[in-house]
Write a structure and sequence with these properties.
By secondary structure, the chain is an alpha+beta fold. The protein is built from eleven helices and 24 strands. Strand 14 and strand 15 form a beta hairpin.
Length: about 525
């Protein structure tokens, strides 16, 4: 009989999967001692990480709506090294490109989707015109990425509410970008007006300097404003912004696109004096989504080629970006610890999966998910009766304090964060109240675990899987963590579809997306995903 405990033991004993298959967490060896250094500070980078809820927030389909189908999986390294000039003389780069299918998505499924509106009076630092700014040493400066992101979010709020005040404010962000543009090479670049030290310790960027992440997100803003308003000024702005993706890099001139080792990079931090950059992973993908928006509007073959090249890069460098059993790298040039951007990487590949239908991106997302927990997970932790030890660690994971408690019956305590500790195995809860407040306690299924559903990933495209353990139980769970089970009729070898991954009471599960048990959860160890 396959019980939940048996499934957990089976999961732990499973052989390691291929690099693009979801690896069993418990099967991974104890982490080697990585030396990632301090994680990047989101407050200092020019683009904030995606909110953690973006990983789990997936639009609901109507009851009878057919989910988008997955395509055939590509493989890392697969692609055509092409001279794009042979296809279109207006693309002045040679780079590796896999011929991904590029799909349109519904407005409620696109990148940057919001599910609830933000305050209509605005949020964050703005000037007297309501335009998003950054405050540096008491002085306000324009910030192209912030203005573009703010504009996109305001348009999402308009989509949700139809309140024209959001639309008017989005137009203000776009107009500021247009008013400050620098025309070069047929395109409009959006300059940064303040001095910047890359990651605080590397190159000094004297103004003006530029960012292809800003270009890509401004492109998304202009495209979406044109789609909403039909105003040709936004179409022209989109065309001029797209033109910056076709500008050859020249030291000392505005640039943001280049090729490194045959891979096309959309550079978040192009050096203003030399043709080199950070190869920032999240900024590269955000910029690529601007190309996707522009292709949706225009069906421009140049945008598709560049987008396919950018997605090929994102796919092919994912192992270089990865730190097994730890957070991924923020960038390739400096290898900085991604910090909370690790969750952004996970979420971005879920959306790349939706854009292309290629399961390779879903598998990369799963791989990064298995390496380090998604951030922003807090909740109530259940402690079963018995002895429990909490620990405090230094920055290198060395134990600096410990505290043992004995419980005569089960008890609860809140956790502020669920994450890992450097050079320590497993996942840890940061206990924020009670006898072990300020200590970390290791997650142990059936003994120390967070109640309910948490650390969820929502797949934009249903994924197929094969049942590998039966009888298979399917569960429902309520907000208090109470689970109810039914024994399914699935046999080993049967195919199922799933649309969500999450932990339920300390054990990883997948949610069935179709069939008689749709909406119920099954142990992740019992399903081998095939797409």
């Amino acid at each position: 009989m396959w019980t939940r405990r048996t499934l957990l033991r089976t999961f732990a004993a499973a052989p390691a999967s291929s690099l693009l298959q979801f690896p069993a967490e418990a099967a991974a060896p104890s982490p080697a001692a990585p030396s990632p250094g301090a994680p990047v500070d989101p407050a200092y980078e020019i683009g904030a990480p995606l909110p953690p809820e973006a990983a789990r927030d997936v639009p609901r389909r109507g009851r009878h709506a057919r989910p988008p189908a997955a395509g055939a999986p590509s493989r890392v390294g697969e692609g055509d090294r092409i001279t794009v000039q042979a296809v279109n003389t207006d693309v002045p780069f040679t780079f590796k490109r896999y011929d991904f299918e590029i799909r349109e998505l519904s407005p409620g499924s696109r990148p940057y989707r919001l599910s609830t509106p933000m305050p209509v009076e605005g949020w964050g630092t703005v000037d007297e015109h309501g335009v998003r700014m950054v405050n540096l040493s008491g002085k306000l400066y324009d910030h192209p990425v912030n203005q573009a992101q703010y504009g996109i979010n305001l348009l999402e709020c308009y989509r949700l509410t139809n309140d024209v005040r959001y639309l008017d404010n989005a137009k203000c962000q776009a107009q500021r970008l247009i008013d400050r543009k620098v025309a070069y090479g047929g395109g409009w670049f959006y300059p940064y007006p303040f001095r910047y030290a890359l990651h605080r310790v590397y190159d000094i960027y004297e103004p003006p300097w530029y960012s292809q992440m800003a270009q890509g997100q401004a492109l998304s803003l202009f495209v979406r404003l044109y789609q909403v308003t039909g105003e040709t000024a936004y179409q022209e702005a989109a065309d001029r912004t797209f033109a910056t993706f076709l500008v050859r890099p020249v030291a000392g001139k505005p640039w943001g696109v280049y090729v490194v080792n045959n891979l096309l990079w959309l550079e978040e931090y192009p050096n203003p004096k030399a043709v080199r950059g950070d190869r920032t992973y999240n900024g590269h993908i955000f910029s690529a989504w601007g190309l996707w928006d522009y292709w949706v509007l225009t069906k421009d073959e140049r945008a598709k080629l560049l987008l396919q090249g950018a997605l090929t890069t994102a796919r092919d460098v994912h192992l270089e970006i990865r730190r097994p059993q730890w957070r991924s790298k923020y960038c390739l040039t400096h290898g900085k610890d991604a910090g909370t951007y690790h969750t952004t990487h996970i979420t971005q590949h879920l959306l790349n999966h939706a854009i292309t239908g290629d399961p390779a991106f879903a598998r990369i997302s799963d791989l990064y998910y298995s390496d380090f927990p998604v951030h922003g997970v807090s909740g109530q932790i259940r402690f079963e009766a018995g002895d429990h030890t909490g620990y405090k660690f230094d920055a290198q994971g060395r134990v600096v304090a410990s505290k043992k408690i004995r419980l005569s019956r089960y008890s609860y305590a809140p956790s502020a964060e669920r994450d890992k500790v450097l050079n320590q195995g497993g996942v840890w809860y940061n206990i924020s109240a009670g006898a072990l407040a300020g200590y970390r306690v290791k997650e142990t299924p059936a003994r120390v675990f967070q109640l309910g559903e948490y650390a969820a990933l929502g797949y934009r495209i249903d994924r197929k899987g094969k049942v590998i353990a039966a009888p298979l139980k399917a569960y429902t769970i309520d907000s208090a963590g109470r689970m109810k089970a039914v024994t399914t009729t699935y046999k080993v070898g049967d195919m199922v579809t799933v649309d969500r991954r999450a932990y339920l009471n300390g054990v990883q599960h997948l949610r069935l997306a179709s069939g008689d048990y749709a909406g119920r959860w099954v142990g992740a160890a019992a399903i081998l995903l095939t797409t």
